[in-house]
Amino acid sequence: VAPTTPVCVVPSSAMTGTVVELSCKETEGSPPSQYQWYKNGVALLEKTGTGSARTPNVTYTMNKKSGTLLFNTVTRNDTGEYFCEASNGIGLPQKCSVKRMQV
C-alpha cells in the first residue's frame, strides 16, 4: 500500500540551546514508510555515531524509521523551512507541507 501524506509536527519557534523534536508520521503505508527530512529543500543526512567526526556541524539525530528529527541543542543555524517525505517503495513518496522553524 502506498504511503499517504504524512503529518509533520514542526514547532514554529524554538529557544537557542533547547532540545527540539520534529516528528513525521503516516499510517497507511504497507510496508511501513521510511522518513526523510529536508531543510530548505535539501535532504538532511542520517547521522550515526561514527559520522560525527566527519560532520562536526550536525546538531541533530534523524531516525528514518520513526520519522523523528531530534535537535539536542538548536542553534540559530537550524532556523529554516522543514518538511519530511514518506516512502516505502510503493507509489510515489509523499511529502508534508513545508513548515518554518525560527530559532
TrEMBL record:
Keywords: Cell junction, Cell membrane, Disulfide bond, Immunoglobulin domain, Membrane, Signal, Tight junction, Transmembrane, Transmembrane helix. The keyword Chloroplast does not apply. Its main location: other. Pfam families: Ig_3. One of its GO terms (biological process) is leukocyte cell-cell adhesion. Residues 3-103 form the Ig-like domain. Gene3D superfamilies: Immunoglobulins. It is a single-pass type I membrane protein. It comes from the Eukaryota. GO terms for cellular component: bicellular tight junction; cell surface; plasma membrane; protein complex involved in cell adhesion. InterPro entries: Ig-like_dom (IPR007110), Ig-like_dom_sf (IPR036179), Ig-like_fold (IPR013783), Ig_sub (IPR003599), Ig_sub2 (IPR003598), JAM2 (IPR042625). It is found in: Cell junction, Tight junction; Cell membrane. The keyword Nucleotide-binding does not apply. Belongs to the immunoglobulin superfamily. This is JAM2 protein. It comes from Pitta sordida. The lineage of its organism: Eukaryota, Metazoa, Chordata, Craniata, Vertebrata.
